[in-house]
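WP5 quarterly update. Target: DUF2635 domain-containing protein. Source organism: Paraburkholderia largidicola. Length: 84 aa.
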Amino acid sequence: MFVKPAAGMKIRDPDMKDFLPDEGRDVPDDHLYWVKRLSDKDVELAERPEPKEASPQTEVEVRDQDHAETSAVDDTSTHREGSA
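Structure tokens (predicted):
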């Protein structure tokens, strides 16, 4: 089931060890914790958001940003050419 916190509520997710996001999350239907939260009106059923399809251009841009950060050369190295 897909649930989101009721207005003004901060609900911990016992499996993910974080707070349930305001936009909601998919949780197990048969988990007693979530059944109880729903019964107590701490969370409410919500519709799953439509998955966003990333364009190939967006994926390439993100990939390039990741590589740009990790492939930087450290010019402050203490190793000098010719020394052992």
